[in-house]
Amino acid sequence: MPEQVAEVMEKLMKAELIRLGWRLVKTHNLVHLVNELDARGSDLISVVRPSPARWLRLTSVTGTPGFDLDDPDWPPLRQQIEEVGKLLDRVKMRVTPKT
Description:
By secondary structure, the protein is an all-alpha fold. It has one domain. The chain has five helices and no strands.
């Protein structure tokens, strides 16, 4: 699951970049995407800039966490999922046509 959280974060950053006129580049480098957002003046930078190191740690996890919710790895993962959910809501509002 941690790898999927980082992947969702990557897709959300790419969606925002494309909305800002960025030409899609095949990359999974989250730091590069954060820098691209910053260069384009995206206000989402305040959400994603503090996080790349955490997202990168998620992508380098060798195993998936267990399903024991008392496991110490779960609270940070839960927080990151919540953060990604909030970012998803913000990005969806920007790219969804108003009816």
